[in-house]
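Continuing the series of single-chain predictions for the mutant panel. This is the parent chain; the variants come on the following pages.
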Amino acid sequence: MGKSSSRLLSPPPFVTRLCRRAGFPFSLRVSGNKHGAGDGGQNHRADGEYSNISVMDSQTADRSPKITVIKPTFICPQVSNGPLTGSRKRPSEGNYEKEKDVCIQLFDQWSEADQVEFVEHLISRMCHYQHGHINSYLKPMLQRDFITALPAQGLDHIAENILSFLDARSLCSAELVCKEWQRVISEGMLWKKLIERMVRTDPLWKGLSERHQWEKYLFKNRTTEVPPNSYYRSLYPKIIQDIETIEANWRCGRHNLQRIQCRSENSKGVYCLQYDDEKIISGLRDNSIKIWDKQTLECLKILTGHTGSVLCLQYDERVIVTGSSDSTVRVWDVTSGEVLNTLIHHNEAVLHLRFCNGLMVTCSKDRSIAVWDMASPTDISLRRVLVGHRAAVNVVDFDDKYIVSASGDRTIKVWSTSTCEFVRTLNGHKRGIACLQYRDRLVVSGSSDNTIRLWDIECGACLRVLEGHEELVRCIRFDNKRIVSGAYDGKIKVWDLQAALDPRAPASTLCLRTLVEHSGRVFRLQFDEFQIISSSHDDTILIWDFLNVSTNGQTEGRSPSRTYTYISR
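Parent structure:
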């Protein structure tokens, strides 16, 4: 095969480092020809094994006998379907144990950086099968119970903050993990924080907190007297039960009905209204504005000044703004009832108005829309008049992007709020449009063609037509769940908004309930999560209460089971 020769072969770096730390300065020589064929190829193996490696003291290599140390060999075994076998060749178990102990002792003396580098070299010389075993070994070691570990480092607040993002179901599961998790949840008052988060973000939760009187136990720090976490833990399912009951009452039409008889002196009818937790303000056909106590249903104040029917109104914490068939808009002090301003612009009845953030929009039977700047109740100036409808403009609504108007000419027109320029027309109703509401991209309108239409304001498409009323749809409101409509047939209908927006939902499933109590045309309504308040040509205001529903003929009051009072021990 040719003359055998010797050549130097550089060892793997980790072998060099290990030997040096063991105190062996060395040079390395491997016998065999340069092609690895000498001695039958026993000294250099194609499978990666280094054999018969002679380690000689470099200082005495020329003067002293050679010191030959047979080092353990490293073989990357072939991957097979059978078990891992023979990954290390060693003379005996005893030698392996001694060698392992020496390596461990040396390993323990190294710095962390050197240890990491050494292990990286070892792993790089292993095969995929071995990597899998190492991964299985390391995986549980890398897992950390950080919720338990953080408090041990004095970081309880971080553990509490992490768990505070859980929903109720996950929080229940977290309590069962271990006692330490349960302690973090309890001491962190995480059930209280969950309820507070729901009250801040969900109007239904906020309303329940006020009506059932557990709001007083929320949003207080730990320095004040608050119930323990167990109180909030038991309160949460009671709240969920109340919510499910309210939703069932809406679906089934169960309600407690209260009636206000307006007792108009001349002509009868309540054209418009708005309410809050303390009062109801109504505009009547007899030219007056009446303010009612919402709890006792007594009339608190009557405002007079208009010479025609009060057709529309809106109020905030400072003023009441009303529009009348006398063609004027009046601004009243909400507390004293004093007239602060009278706007004379329209030539015919003011049919509807809206104001918000210093901007007011009014519309009239004269076919025009007026846009006003409201610097103060006494400083209101006309910005722009919008003309385009061919019949009376019955209703307007707006936000920061669009002004939306509807008319007896069967169209809905969209205008830019900032520039007052015309944007587009929504066509579809077959007769005049009497009412609408606009929010986000959705417009919902009611017409004298007896239908309700849902529109996408951005593209002008009609998304759904709701049919069910037998006469003109006079008033309409919607929230995230429902549409509530009132019509000249004397009926109030409750519709499923989410189903109406789903084109796959059958038309027969959209109307959830029809409420019949008014004996005349329904002129106006508003609603929230707990009630509908409506007014009619029959001279009444009805309060449909879906929270305190009658049980065996008795109105369910604020019993202890619903008040959730905490008694300090």
